[in-house]
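Please decode residue identities from the backbone states below.
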């Protein structure tokens, strides 16, 4: 915050400018803020002097944003909206039946979302807040009620209710698979994993007993979802976690290459915090997830 206050001395001037930019007028901004039009004009003039650039083009009956004003307005509107949302959440805590669920982006996108309608139909009274991130969660600190963690257990501060093991193998589009070339001669799609235990092409080849892959990844993504959709589009070969990409294999968008596969030590683990008691909604979600994990392994 010290750096922010050093950049702009008046938060009030920023708030006044945001209102004038959003409402496209000093008079409307004054009405919303409960001040005079002259006060709005003074605050904006102060900000323009401090930034050493005009923010509005002032006409006889209207004002328009300059390019600099438009850039600042876009940044402020987004930032103020986030602050307003955070304050609203603090003022109105989630209902007792709201469940905060966390998972990686890949699991959320490929596994949970296709199954979500079934859960919501069975339990319409449960309100869900879904949080997806690949940087990991700490259930001792993060307000997560139910977590799917890909890795090894046990994990401090959690209790594991169920595990979903997985197998990993190369997948590609039917067109690319139809070329019938060795893996070394096909473009490989890699991911920049935040979690080192997740398989890279090099590690997969070692565990599968495949000869070392000398070819560098032709494409690299920071998100597994992007890597899979690139493979669907025929851009190369990706590593496929079977439990996540099963629908793509079933409908033919992806094809498995060869018979080599790896069963990692890691698994998709259903975790709940040991420091908090599960609410009714969380218990319903975990029971549903346990059944879904069991059905997928049957």
């Amino acid at each position: 915050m010290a750096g922010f206050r050093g950049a702009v001395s008046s938060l009030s001037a920023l708030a006044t400018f945001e209102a004038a930019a959003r409402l496209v007028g000093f008079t409307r901004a004054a009405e919303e803020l409960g001040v005079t039009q002259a006060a709005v004009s003074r605050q904006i003039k102060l900000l323009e002097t401090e930034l050493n650039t005009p923010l509005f083009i002032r006409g006889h009956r209207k004002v328009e944003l300059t390019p600099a004003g438009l850039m600042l307005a876009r940044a402020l509107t987004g930032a103020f909206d986030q602050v307003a949302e955070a304050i609203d959440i603090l003022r109105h805590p989630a209902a007792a039946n709201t469940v905060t669920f966390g998972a990686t982006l890949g699991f959320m996108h490929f596994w949970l979302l296709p199954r979500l309608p079934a859960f919501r139909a069975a339990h319409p009274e449960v309100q869900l807040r879904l949080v997806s991130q690949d940087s990991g969660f700490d259930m001792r600190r993060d307000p997560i009620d139910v977590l799917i963690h890909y890795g090894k257990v046990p994990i401090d501060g959690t209790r594991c209710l169920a595990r979903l093991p997985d197998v990993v193998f190369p997948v590609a589009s039917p067109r690319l698979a139809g070329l019938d070339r060795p893996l070394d001669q096909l473009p490989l799609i890699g991911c920049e994993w935040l979690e080192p235990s997740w398989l890279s092409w090099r590690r997969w080849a070692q565990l599968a007993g495949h000869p070392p892959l000398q070819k560098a990844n032709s494409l690299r993504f920071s998100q597994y979802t992007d890597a899979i959709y690139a493979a669907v589009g025929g851009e190369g070969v990706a590593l496929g976690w079977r439990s996540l990409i099963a629908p793509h294999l079933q409908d033919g968008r992806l094809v498995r290459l060869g018979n080599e596969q790896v069963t990692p030590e890691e698994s998709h683990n259903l975790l709940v915090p040991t420091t908090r008691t599960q609410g009714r909604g969380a218990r319903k979600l975990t029971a549903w997830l346990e059944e879904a994990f069991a059905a997928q392994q049957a």
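Observation: The chain is about 45% helix and 20% strand.
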